[in-house]
Amino acid sequence: MTTLYFHNARLIDPEGLTDRPGTLIVDAGRIAALDAPSPPKGAQVIDCAGKCLAPGIVDLGVQIGEPGARHKESFRSAGRAAAAGGVTTLITRPDTTPPIDSPEALEFVNRRADSDAPVNIHHMATLTRNRAGREMSEIGFLLDAGAVAFTDGDHVVTDTRVLARCMTYARSLGALIVGHPQDPGLSRGAVVTSGKFASLRGLPGVSPMAERMGFDRDMALVEMTGARYHADQITCARSLPALERAKANGLDVTAGVSVHHLTLNDLDVGSYRSFFKLTPPLRPEDDRMAMVEAVASGLIDIICSMHTPQDEESKRLPFEDAATGAVGLETLLAASLRLYHAGALDLPHLFRALSLNPARRLGLEGGQMAVGAPADLVLFDPDAPFVLDRFTLRSKSKNTPFDGARLEGKVLATYVAGHRVFAAGDA
Length: 427
Description:
With 427 residues, the protein is α/β, with parallel strands linked by helices. The protein has one domain: Alpha-Beta Barrel (TIM Barrel), CATH 3.20.20.140. 30% of the residues lie in helices and 23% in strands. The strands form four sheets. Strands 1, 2, 3, 4, 5, 15, 16 and 17 form an eight-stranded mixed β-sheet that branches. Helix 6 links the parallel strand 10 and strand 11. Helix 4 packs across helix 7. One of its GO terms (cellular component) is cytoplasm. Keywords: Pyrimidine biosynthesis, Zinc. One of its GO terms (molecular function) is metal ion binding. InterPro entries: Amidohydro_3 (IPR013108), DHOase (IPR004722), DHOase/Allantoinase_Hydrolase (IPR050138), DHOase_cat (IPR024403), Metal-dep_hydrolase_composite (IPR011059), Metal_Hydrolase (IPR032466). This is Dihydroorotase.
């Protein structure tokens, strides 16, 4: 394996929270040295031209269409999109058809991912069989088969006794549960956040309290069982005090938020633009700003894309009937950099939420700019402007809310274990 010597780089360290010029040596797929004054003999020298070199993004909560919806996204297309977006590790959701609820199904997606994707891929498995909320999945066997966490996604387990049993068993094995804080009764049929905008548009809305109520229930069960818990998306200011109390009380709880809820608000739905139909729905601007502040303070730990590919047929429908979700692998970094350019987050804190924290929460090696860490790296220009054309995205589905948006921040190259898997200009 070729030794690489990156010089004239702007090194972004999310662990030490530093942003400084330096050099970096990669050998045998790992970071071998920092700030070496000269390249080792025979090394390939890479001039970074003063651009940023950071740990590759670890994206927690990606939907892939295999099995069951390969026409929407395959491991190959998702892997190419991830590499182009500076994402070096994907954590996939089990909401496939059929769901990933058995060791055999997990073995299938492991095999497909290993053969088709140029980036690292780890998989979550379902918490209950068929995501039906009635019977616990084979958590122990799925852990042995490589599952990194357990979730039913947006199929909230409504039977509290079943969820308590799942949490108790998961705690005995040290397994991580990923919850979707939402009261399903209040949110059923809703497509936007309730308020003046929803009323003016004649769209069924859901109160932000549905998220708060779902989160409060989950926190009570975490306190009762001692389970490890991660909230996939916290999107409302009213949920933050409960999250703060849970952490202050010593519960093993973390939380994430999607980049869409950090950079868009409910008014972006505009004239029923279905690419902006997400779950949870986009929130008012006050909630968006509260989420940005929570990420900056570290109260919310993780920024993710919640990549959810949908084909044209399912999105080109009246707003109420359109499928929910948006693709985000290739736009995650550029969209997140809106927070940097707005002065809300510096780059080390941004990559703490994009790379270091998700890797730590899942017990993975990535997300570090340190000697011995895997050489999963992204080289990017944070100031390069461009207008996004959704048809240039490498994902099979093109349902991005950033179509036609002006963004800043281009990925120049992506490396996985020291191998370059993307370079600007690649088709």
